[in-house]
């Protein structure tokens, strides 16, 4: 799957990593629902770090369609809330 982090670029990520990413996404969703700004910041950073660590960066000139778009590390709680589906940022 191709994942874009807004403002950074794209990475190719194996489906086998989505269990870990979904766990972080569930934590992020719970923190957003409770208004836990500190937890939200920490978990968003952990989610993006996991994508960077587990994924393979695509070249800057690659024009692959992104199947998943994640917010930038400095996105606000409200900006991320606007990006959410019923399943969080990561479907599944």
How would you characterize the overall build of this protein?
The protein has 92 residues and is an alpha+beta fold. Helices cover 46% and strands 14% of the residues. Helix 1 (18-34) packs antiparallel against helix 2 (37-54). It is globular. The model has no long low-confidence stretch (mean pLDDT 89).
Spell out the key features of this protein.
about 45% helix; 3 helices; about 90 residues; alpha+beta; 4 strands
Fraction in beta strands:
5-15%
Helical content (DSSP H or I, runs of 4+) = 40-55%
Largest sheet: spatial strand order: 3-2-1-4
Oligomer: single chain
Secondary structure class reads alpha+beta
Which stretches are low in confidence, meaning pLDDT under 50 for 5 or more residues running? Answer: none
Instruction: Give a short account of the largest sheet.
Output: 4 strands, mixed
User: Could you give the order of the helices and strands?
Assistant: EEHHEEH
Mean pLDDT: 89
Amino- and carboxy-terminal Cα gap: 13 Å
- How many beta-strand runs? 4
Report the radius of gyration as a whole number of Å. Answer: 13 Å
Annotation field: number of helices: 3
Shape: globular
